[in-house]
Write a structure and sequence with these properties.
Distance between the termini: 11 Å
Order of helices and strands: HHEEHEEHEEEEE
Shape: globular
Oligomer: single chain
Number of helices: 4
Largest sheet: 7 strands, mixed
Length: about 200
C-alpha cells in the first residue's frame, strides 16, 4: 500500500497507479454494500468484525501468493498492513477515507490465517515500514485494506493496495466468494491504479 502521506508527493500521485501496478509488476490476474468494522458502506447485508476477518485473511493470502514473473520484484517476506481501513484505497489512495480500524484481536486472527505463507505486521502508520530510499523494511510489502462491501449475490468486494517499493504499487478491488474452504479471491473489478 501507499503510505497515507504518499511517500512524498511522487508516490502519492503514483499511488493512483498502484492498483494497476500489481498487474504491471506481474503480480495480478487479469481484470475481469455492507459494513466494515461496524461502519456501513451500503445497503447490502451487514457483517460484524468477526465475519470480516476471514475475508481480510483471504485478501492478504492473495497478495502473499501472487505469481512473480521474471523481472518482477521478489516476493515479499512480510506484509506491513495498515490498521486503518480505507474505503477509497482502490480508487484514489491519495485521498484516504478511513472507515475504521482493525482491533488487536482481529489483527492477531488475520495474521494467524496467513501465517503458513507470510508474516503479517499491523502498523498504525505505514510510513514506518519505508526506508529512506523508499524500499520497504525486511523485504516486505505495504498493504492497505478497504472496507468490505457484501453484494446481494453473497460475494464480498474489498479495495486493497499493495506497494513493494518506490516503483511498484497497485490498487484494485477484489471480488471474493465463499467456497468449502472459506473465502477466496474470485476476480478483480472496478476502479484500480498502478505505479
Amino acid at each position: 500500500m501507499i503510505p497515507r502521506t504518499g511517500i512524498r508527493l511522487g508516490v502519492g500521485v503514483g499511488a493512483i497507479v498502484v492498483v494497476v501496478a500489481l498487474t504491471a509488476c506481474g503480480n495480478g490476474p487479469p481484470a475481469s454494500g455492507g459494513t466494515t468494522t461496524g461502519v456501513a458502506t451500503s445497503s447490502a447485508p451487514t457483517t460484524s468484525a468477526a465475519d470480516e476477518v476471514p475475508v481480510y485473511g483471504a485478501a492478504l493470502r492473495y497478495v502473499a501468493t501472487l505469481p512473480h514473473e521474471p523481472g518482477a520484484p521478489p516476493a515479499p517476506t512480510v506484509l506491513w498492513v495498515s490498521e486503518a481501513l480505507d474505503r477509497n484505497v482502490a480508487a484514489d489512495p491519495s485521498h484516504p477515507d478511513v472507515a475504521g480500524t482493525l482491533g488487536e484481536p482481529e489483527q492477531r486472527t488475520i495474521a494467524g490465517l496467513v501465517a503458513d505463507v507470510i508474516r503479517v505486521e499491523f502498523v498504525k502508520d505505514t510510513d514506518s515500514a519505508y526506508l529512506p530510499d523508499f524500499s520497504i523494511r525486511d523485504g516486505g510489502a505495504v498493504v492497505t485494506l478497504g472496507a468490505i462491501d457484501l453484494a446481494p449475490d453473497g460475494t464480498a468486494r474489498l479495495g486493497i493496495s499493495f506497494t513493494c517499493g518506490a516503483r511498484c504499487a497497485e490498487g484494485q478491488t477484489l471480488v471474493l466468494s465463499t467456497t468449502g474452504d472459506g473465502w477466496m479471491v474470485d476476480r478483480i473489478t472496478g476502479p484500480g491504479w498502478i505505479t
